[in-house]
Specification:
The structure holds two protein chains of two kinds. Chain A is α/β, with parallel strands linked by helices. Chain A has eleven helices and nine strands. In chain A, helix 5 (144-158) packs across helix 6 and helix 5 packs across helix 11. By secondary structure, chain B is of the alpha/beta class. Chain B contains 14 helices and 17 strands. In chain B, strand 7, helix 2 (105-118) and strand 8 (122-125) form a beta-alpha-beta unit. Chain B is globular and about 65 Å long. Classes of the chains: A alpha/beta, B alpha/beta. Chains A and B meet through helix 4 of A and helix 6 of B.
Chain lengths: 321, 426
């Protein structure tokens, strides 16, 4: 691995979202991550390309999976990873996001990984920081590493993204995973559908380049990939859908609904799953069809690639914008 | 007695339809004479050469947040007065959403005293329609009006409860008082920050349907039908909202409305990458709505343009979009942004000035906003054609929150007079 050379394909300072990335840039992440998948399966997993680098996991919202995934990725590459949970600390003392940014800046991190409950907050932070920033999810806006790991998962199983039909099902309205995936899949030449009750779809979603369906039978017809979204519990009981029972009946994934998809269609879910709400256990645990555990594995590899690529640009040269 | 002679100005008085080159003589606090050549009549007067400049009634801004009392670190009567002076505004009307709110006669009196002390633009105030702006119990509307409150509104929030609104209107009708509504159905707007559509969807921001405005206007118009009260919808921003008011006017209801420059100068794309300076209430709308606002101004459905001046300090705006405050400052950009309507051919200069002067004055029942012998000498002298760029750093307002920084505009205030006193001179 080269660690001093500046990255020649991805010439941005931060990874804030998928929207605006080119197919070459996306492939660049996926290609590098592909190599890390094999590395991660070896007994000796340690690399040194991030040696001496400080990576701060700064989570303004609870997360176990994404935070751990970034932590493992950073440590495998030899970086020092510090976890900071801001939910329970300074924000409650009235410190503003900008104050937090300034505090972190003074610690000279090389990469800051940020999750925040408000859309656009990670970009705001990135404008005030000297280091590279990776968006680990901002409100309902973007979650770029999730889309990259989903793409890697699909590419490894199907050999390609171009020409596939992907149905994204469930709470698209509040989902940053959906927005990042819509952007990535469109950029890579896949066809994207969204399937959801009308209360869980944002206005003019079709302008993002998706076909809109309101029932699973039509939405899943002949698709290659079924991507289920998590339904937050506070949205389950009347606010957006009447009940989990009704939601599962019409929009939960089971074998009956899956029959509409291609016979070799694969199932994905960004986790954590609500079994019996958006997905039935028998489908989720189907080792032939479900990619859910692969997604987690790809997550570490993709995040290693992101850290590697962004720190290449932190060489001794002037920072690139 | 001080006297001042404006020589060779383009005199604009929308009320009388005057648009002609000529002289205007100010004596003391009042306009003494208007005519072709007044040099003979005014030998002792200080002469202001006004070639190429327009002389119009000072602007009447019917929607301003002063932040005094309660948030003087963001704006005060003094700094708002300076901003108004620089913007050519000679009369402004404050919203009651201060701390304490203007729901008691004592606060009206406090504002009047502060305005007398500061002696810049004239300051009037609305009073709260409901006690504490809580949307439940009526304020002492009769007494508040007798002490100077020009109208009744809950400020930046709607009187949401239909029964309360009916009583506000009916009680106001008893004394022939004006009721001003922030027309947005709060249950539909709840938690929303931008207008529903592609921009909101792309940015993943909670959205408000334009129907929130339309439903509230339609509801209120039905209540106006049964109460007969004078009703004014503030900052109308949607095509259908304007349609509803157009129909109500045709029906003969005592209804008026205003809009603010962002709603004809910008659309939702100004939010770009989460620019909190473009976070407004009501939110910036689609291009289609923006054009309808322009059309409403053109055909007279929209009576007035107000700045909707909402000063916020940096800490209130340098936040993630969802946490940032709503609103922008507008006193100093009211005239140049409005002049875009003239330069783009949507309104004649007289019609534009009408929406900034005599129309709001008429709605508010104020004896200002006109050029006539005997009228108060509240005047703005401006160059309608000079090109410049807005720079928020130059604002006299204590707050700089405006999405127009760097925008090229045409038209600039040269001098502002209130009761014959010059309060601003460029």
């Amino acid at each position: 691995m080269q660690s001093v050379a500046r990255d020649t394909v991805f010439r941005h300072r931060h990874l804030l979202g998928i929207e605006g990335l080119s197919p070459e840039e996306i492939n660049h992440f996926l290609d590098l991550a592909d190599g890390y998948v094999e590395l991660n399966r070896q007994i000796e997993k340690k690399r040194t390309s991030l040696r001496g680098r400080t990576i701060i996991n700064c989570f303004f919202e609870n997360s176990t999976r994404t935070r751990t995934s970034f932590e493992v990725a950073g440590k495998r590459l030899g970086g020092d990873v510090i976890n900071m949970s801001v939910v329970a600390s300074s924000m409650h003392k009235g410190e503003t996001l900008i104050d937090t940014a300034m505090t972190l800046n003074a610690m000279h991190p090389d990469v800051l990984i940020v999750r925040h409950p408000e859309s656009g907050a990670v970009q705001l932070l990135s404008e005030k920081l000297d280091c590279a920033v990776i968006n680990a999810g901002d409100g309902s806006h973007e979650h770029p590493t999730q889309a990259l790991l989903d793409a890697l998962t699909i590419r490894r199983r199907k050999g390609r993204l171009r020409g596939l039909t992907v149905a994204i099902c469930g709470d698209v309205l509040h989902s940053r995973v959906a927005r990042s995936n819509i952007a990535l899949l469109n950029t890579m030449g896949a066809r994207v559908r969204v399937v959801a009750p009308r209360t869980l779809l944002p206005a003019e979603i079709e302008r993002l380049g998706v076909e809109v369906f309101h029932n699973m039978a039509d939405g899943l017809a002949d698709v290659d990939i079924v991507m289920m979204l998590r339904l937050q519990s506070e949205r389950m009981h009347g606010a957006f859908v009447p009940s989990t029972r009704e939601y599962f009946h019409f929009f939960g994934l089971d074998y009956t609904k899956l029959r509409a998809a291609k016979p070799d269609a694969l199932i994905m879910h960004p986790g954590p799953m609500n079994r019996g709400v958006e997905i039935g256990s028998e489908v989720a645990d189907d080792i032939d069809r479900s990619l859910i555990r692969h997604q987690v594995e790809m997550g570490v590899a993709v995040r290693m690639a992101c850290l590697e690529i962004l720190t290449r640009d932190l060489g001794n040269g002037p920072p690139l914008q | 007695m001080n006297s001042l002679l404006f020589r060779g100005a383009r005199l604009l008085d929308p009320e009388s339809g005057l648009d002609t080159p000529g002289d205007l003589l100010v004596e003391g606090e009042r306009i003494a004479a208007i005519g072709g050549d007044l040099s003979a009549a005014a030998r002792d007067a200080e002469v202001v050469s006004a070639d190429e400049l327009c002389l119009a009634p000072g602007l009447v801004d019917m929607r301003v947040q002063l932040r005094e009392p309660g948030a003087e670190h963001m704006e005060s009567i003094e700094t708002a007065g300076q901003a108004a002076a620089a913007g050519g505004v000679t009369t402004m009307v404050a919203l009651p959403n201060t701390d304490p709110p203007v729901d008691d006669v004592s606060v009206v009196e406090f504002l009047a005293r502060r305005a007398r002390e500061v002696k810049l633009a004239k300051i009037h105030t609305y009073a709260a329609a409901t006690k504490g702006l809580r949307g439940r119990d009526l304020t002492e509307m009769g007494l508040l009006a007798a002490n100077g409150a020009l109208g009744f509104t809950d400020g930046v929030q709607a009187v949401a409860d239909a029964l309360v609104m009916r009583r506000v209107l009916a009680y106001a009708r008893t004394f022939d008082l004006l009721v001003i509504q922030h027309p947005e159905e709060p249950s539909l707007a709840r938690a929303g920050e931008v207008s529903e559509g592609e921009t909101a969807t792309r940015l993943g921001l909670p959205a408000i349907t334009p129907m929130a405005e339309i439903i509230m206007i339609e509801r209120d118009l039905r209540l106006v039908e049964i109460t007969g009260a004078r009703y004014h919808a503030a900052h109308v921003s949607t095509a259908h909202g304007i349609d509803a008011i157009r129909r109500a006017k045709a029906q003969g209801l005592p209804v008026t409305c205003d809009t603010a420059p962002p709603y004809f100068a910008l659309n939702e794309t100004a939010i770009g990458d989460y620019r909190t300076f473009a976070k407004l209430s009501p939110p910036l709308r689609s291009e289609w709505d923006r054009r309808a606002v322009v059309e409403g101004l053109h055909d007279g459905t929209v009576d007035a343009i107000a700045s909707d001046h909402a000063p916020w300090d940096q800490d209130s705006k340098r936040l993630p979009f969802s946490s940032a405050a709503y609103g922008i400052v507008g006193l100093e950009t009211l005239l140049p942004l409005s002049l875009e309507l003239y330069h783009n051919g949507h309104l004649s200069l007289t019609e534009l000035i009408r929406r900034l002067t005599c129309n709001p004055a008429r709605i508010l029942g104020l004896p200002v906003g006109r050029l006539a012998p005997g009228a108060p000498a509240d005047l703005v002298l401006f160059d309608p054609n000079v090109s410049w760029r807005i720079s928020t750093d130059d604002f006299r307002s204590k707050s700089k929150n405006a999405p127009f920084d760097g925008r090229p505009v045409k038209g600039r205030v040269r001098r502002t007079l209130v009761d014959g006193r010059t309060i601003f001179q460029a």
